[in-house]
Amino acid sequence: MTPLLKSPRGSDRHGFKKTHSWVVFCTLLGCFFVSSGCNKTPPASFRSNMIEATKQRLSQSQEKQVATVLLAMFGTPDNPVVLAETGLDLEKLTLCAGPVRSDIVGRKNGLYREHCAHCHGITGDAMGPTAAFLNPYPRDYRPGVFKFKSTERVEKPTHVDLVRILHNGIAGTSMPSFALLSETQIDALAEYVKYLSIRGETELSLMRAFFELDDDAKGILPETREFLIGEMLLPASEKWLAAKESQIPVPLISEGVDLVESIAKGKALFYGDKANCVKCHGVTGLGDGQANDYDDWNKPIVEIDKELRGTRERIKVTATASMSPEELAEHVALQDWVTKLSQVLDGDSLKPRTVVPRNLRHGVYRGGRRPLDLYYRIYAGINGAPMPAAKGAVSPEDIWHIVNYVRSLPYEFDGELGADRPLIARERF
Amino acid sequence: MVRPVHFICISAIVLGLAGGCGPSRISSPSADDAAAQQLRVMLGSTAASGNSSGDLTSAESTGTGWGSLSGRFVFTGTPPETKALVIDKDTEICSKDGRKSLDRSLLVDSSTKGLANVVLFVRKVSRVKEPSETVAASAAVFDQKWCEFLSPVFSAKVGQAVDVRNSDPIGHNTNISGSSFNQLIPAGQGTTYTPDRETGMPSMVICNIHPWMKAYVLFRKDGYAAISGTDGSFRIQNLPAEELLEFQVWHERSTGPNGSLGLEKPELKWTKKGRFQIKLVPDEEKNLGDIEVPAGVLGG
Q1: Quick one: which of A337, A354, A86, A60 has its CA closest to A200?
Q2: Which CATH superfamily is domain A249-295+355-426 in?
Q3: Which of A133, A147, A180, B72 has the largest CB neighbor count within 10 A?
Q4: Model-level pTM?
Q5: Does the beta-carbon distance from A67 to B37 stay under 8 Å?
Q6: pLDDT of residue A211
């Protein structure tokens, strides 16, 4: 506190000289610059999956071991490294990695940071600075789960699937089209998404592997090729290489099928017990059926938050007075874990949102609007979302009928507009 | 006339803005650069490293005989009241004739105090006794009726065909978390699911159409797994004798890491990760007797 502030009321009303005011101003200006600092920005780094690390109750040295193994396997956001086993193309990754700049021949580098990182985050954890403002949230690549693809549900998308998403964007979301980029650039970005996804999935495997360790391993993962590559890296990377072979078979709809007839059949299936679309997409097709479910990205956050609350309640009521030293140490460790977890949830996750079944009367289809895209969605369901696969339960011909009905929904005339719809839906018109 | 206090206020605001007010994030652990360099060289070389096998779960092969392990989980303390679940959909089927679906996450038998649905499996074995043909041929059935999975906890072998059935007159979907299996099961029909890898711990199964439906599944390569019955008893047969077997114990409500049931059992060296070790002699029928599970290790 400067004495100036303490001067008695009225006594120095006009005594505050101009020079003094300048001194205060300059001092504060100086403080401002000191507080904002003049260091160079530190190099970009990948952020550990703190949610999983805390969930698995990893110690600091275990967190460090995971970070070290990942640095060895994947390098940094500025200098990516690839092992031959991943099948990734380092040249493509180099085009995307690092800060935005031009290389010696004037070619644009740092594409990921220029176009993707602000939403998907440097790490691909969907925690970029803009992520919190988007609905739906951007995709977190780390679990290795992708929704819109031409492959069987459990499989990864093909390279072409990723390229298509980059080209077209995702209608109805904040994901824009990158059609203005060159083919080479889009191709490179798709490769970089795979790189971040394989890295993220390997990280999850590493963090979960600590629990599986024997007690004599002393909480340290074996640093052998067999373990790190054979058991941690390959399960994540092999599936990307095999994606091409797991394309969904699409039989063509038989010729001579009357469209009106097909739509009627599709409608019967939509409302019937076999395909059961009505349960989530609603009687009206407005997506107002099931509404309190979460997808595979939000659900873990909801669950760990529940565990946090439960643990917090539990340790609150525990009497510490009669505890043995070991029990007390355990109690303190649990308290520390609760504190860390709540900090991690604050800083490393966004508020979970329920997943909304698609309103089929808008005619906006996130995974693409070609009839083929709708066929894929119905056949394999949507991986990561509650939408189940109709494969096996509904014949391919019937899936085509449902596709035709769904495509007719935005244009279906239902008598007086909206008359058969629930009140809440009618208010939207 | 600008007063000094104005200067100070404005400057304080500017300072505050410059400092930012975003949520403070826990710092991410930093890697050990030198160790990473070394590791990279090792990972990049195609020669196999000379260290021990990377497999986290492999056991030394010993002996030829077989034995069995049994016991009973007993809940100590006051068993909580079993709550009815809120059924708000398809009630004409799911709550037919006033039927109530109960929360089955903590089932204690009122007379014997037995704790049901505790899962116990062997972490690693060196050899497996081939099952008789009748067992091998029978498919495991995972059924649902009255909007409930009939097995709250279910186990099968990796590679065994699981008949996922729907005995309800309405459609369900069966969604096994972590497996990407999420399949429509039309009314009265079924589908086959063949697990292709082990689940470290039981995975949750849900039906998204009826969100109160919940069960757990465990898939193991060797099939040495048991689920305690309504009286809390369990039995695993044909375990390889003369080798140190490590068992993992799990319960849905357990507060331990990943649902592991940690108990105070120094005689079995029961760990906090819910594991204990036993060595059987050939033809031994080992009975662990009553294993007490205090209410404190099972959360809400």
Answers
A1: A86
A2: Cytochrome c-like domain (1.10.760.10)
A3: B72
A4: 0.87
A5: no
A6: 93
